[in-house]
Amino acid sequence: MTDGVRILLVEDDPALAREIIRALEREHWALDHVSCLADAFEAVILSPYRLILLDRRLPDGDGLALIAAARSRPAPPAVIVLTARDGIADRIEGLDAGADDYLVKPFALDELLARMRAAVRRPIAGFPPQPLRLGRLTFDPVSRDAHVGGRSLGLPRRELALLELLVGKAERVVQRSFLERELYGFDAEVTGNALDTLASRLRRRLDQADAGLRLRTIRGVGYMLQPC
Predict the structure, then answer these.
(1) pTM of the predicted structure, to 2 decimals
(2) Cβ-contact 202, 162 below 8 angstroms
(3) What is the largest CA-CA distance in the chain?
(4) Is-contact 8 51, C-beta < 8 A?
(5) Separation CA 202–CA 188 (nearest Å)
(6) Mean pLDDT score, 93-122
(7) Spatial distance between the Cα atoms of 80 and 29, rounded to a whole number of angstroms
């Protein structure tokens, strides 16, 4: 059940997070843990998850704000909300926001594990997206693997995330503001040349791999990826 399944735990209570982490590790779940909304946005952008355990009361906002970003991924994860907010209106708000399940604190860890097993048994919504091909590059949006001529590019996570965004809008100009928001989150302070540096590194790797692609800088506007 847990093979190939990666979980994101978004929980700012250190004691509860430790308790959940220990329980999941005993059951051999692969797990990442973050304690704020900004780090959760970055994790969802950069890594594929099958399930998110999501607290609502986070130091930088309501955890429900993460659900739309999670649902926008090519293979959207299931979401179980973990919260002390137990009112009917709170439950309805969470489910209407796109959560798959809602578990009120305090809860039994055995119940959490059972709900997790149920969540990952459900099929991913829709049909699995097909690999994208551009030039000599093949990008699999489910596994998030990028290959040229059958050889993996082995890109670092943020370069891979930039490639995913550009391949998905191939031969169209992708605005800087969109890329910065998707790559760094809404509230992150991004240095002026961070995106340019990232694009330069990705361009160099594509050239070295002879991917048959040109990553164009549209000055003052954004970037465009096209065959060359």
Answers:
(1) 0.62
(2) yes
(3) 57
(4) yes
(5) 21
(6) 88
(7) 15
Residue of 211, 220, 209, 225 lying closest to 164 (CA atoms): 225
Q: Quick one: which H or E segment has residue 17?
A: helix 14-26
Residues 44/46/51/52 CA torsion (nearest 10 deg): -30
CA distances from 24 to 35, 117, 140 (A): 17, 11, 28
Quickly state the pLDDT bin for 137 (edges 50, 70, 90). very high
Encoding tokens for residue 99? 């959560």
Residue carrying the six token digits 């340019």: 196
Mean pLDDT score across all residues of the chain: 87
Q: What distance, in Å, lies between the first and last C-alpha atoms of the chain?
A: 44
Cα–Cα distance between 14 and 149 in angstroms, integer? Answer: 46
The residues with which 151 forms a beta bridge, in sequence order, are 148
Mind giving me the DSSP string for 175-225?
EHHHHHHHHH-SS----TTHHHHHHHHHHHHHHHTT-SEEEEEETTTEEEE
Cα 167 to chain centroid distance, Å, stands at 16
- Both tokens of residue 31? 């797990």
Number of Cβ within 10 Å of residue 125's Cβ equals 9
**Do 132 and 141 meet the contact criterion of CB atoms below 8 Å apart?**
yes
- For the chain, count helices (H), then strands (E): 8, 14
For residue 103, with 0-12 CB atoms within 10 Å meaning exposed, 13-18 middle and 19 or more buried, which class applies?
middle
